Amino acid sequence: MRDLVELVELKRRYEGKLLRKATVRGVGVGYRVVGGEVTEELSIVVLVTRKICPLEDIHPMDRVPPEIEGARTDVVEVGVVRVPAPAGIGRRERLRPAPGGCSVGHVRSTAGTLGCLVHRGGEVFILSNNHVLAATNLGVKGDYILQPGPVDGGHVPEDGIAELADYIRLDFAGENPMDAALARPFSRELVSPEILEVGVPSGWAEPELRAEVIKSGRTTGLTRGVIGVVETTIDVLYGLRRVRFVGQCVITTPGFSADGDSGSAVLLPANKKVVGLLFAGSEEATVFTPIGRVLSALDVTL
């Protein structure tokens, strides 16, 4: 039986071919699920918008092989994974100091979630997504960040909490490692190190398969789920544009997140260590970036 490192390398060699199949939207590595039960067998996990049965209804070119070089595959239905606009529900209130888990957004955006606070030198920053804090590449350093976000009633200047400080630019034609951005609070008194219903994070850790995780988000509040797939290459819809991300993790628990939860910190419930930054999802699954990669790219610490 191959180990995780071997499966990741095998996945990388075949993911291009698999991603060209009609309903395939992602390829990663996870434990195979049989009859609703998670087994001890690592497999190449193929994420599809929907499963089609019987197999004869699928064009032969679009069928996922049952195994690749002796490694079993597992087909998981995830629906349409996207970065949508939030609905008018959830945590829409103005909070001072603003904690993680509340509504926040760029002045020309809608609203997402304030993930957590991070540090660079003696400065404190708000961590969330590019599409939340930088209006999907349209933001300019110094732009107003509102709490609550504009769709939740935030206005300039009275609800201004921070200014856009930095972000990882999204590449709509290539591969992306993350959707992440930083905002600099106008003062430390405006923000809180706590995350609603969680408390203060105790540090960070690498995400692991089958780990139970929690998140506190603007729309669905505190939820629990399980990491089902790691090292995932996945296509995410930004409006009508399909954007490819690499090295992501997928929570395969339905209802873990919803529109407006983008930017939430994903944590381990036992020790409150942050393992990821949530940025996309569907009713069936949620996608997040391992937090170590985000911290390194933005040159910040927890």
What does this structure look like?
By secondary structure, this protein is mainly β. It has 3 domains: 4-77, no CATH class; 98-195, Thrombin, subunit H (Beta Barrel); 203-298, Beta Barrel (Thrombin, subunit H). The protein has helices at 4-19, 130-133, 291-298; strands at 24-34, 37-48, 67-68, 71-77, 98-100, 103-106, 112-113, 116-120, 123-128, 144-146, 160-167, 175-176, 181-185, 191-195, 203-204, 212-217, 221-238, 241-251, 265-267, 273-281, 286-290. Strands 7-6-10-11-13-9-8 form a 7-stranded antiparallel β-sheet. A 6-stranded antiparallel beta barrel has the order 16-17-18-21-20-19. It has a two-stranded parallel ribbon with strand order 5-14. It is elongated. The mean pLDDT is 95.
Short description:
9% of the residues lie in helices and 43% in strands. The chain is mainly beta.
Secondary structure: elements and pairs:
Elements (H helix, E strand, L loop, with lengths): L3 H16 L4 E11 L2 E12 L18 E2 L2 E7 L20 E3 L2 E4 L5 E2 L2 E5 L2 E6 L1 H4 L10 E3 L13 E8 L7 E2 L4 E5 L5 E5 L7 E2 L7 E6 L3 E18 L2 E11 L13 E3 L5 E9 L4 E5 H8 L4
Parallel strand pairs: 2-4, 5-14, 12-18, 15-20
Antiparallel strand pairs: 1-2, 1-17, 3-4, 6-7, 6-10, 8-9, 9-13, 10-11, 11-13, 16-17, 16-19, 17-18, 18-21, 19-20, 20-21
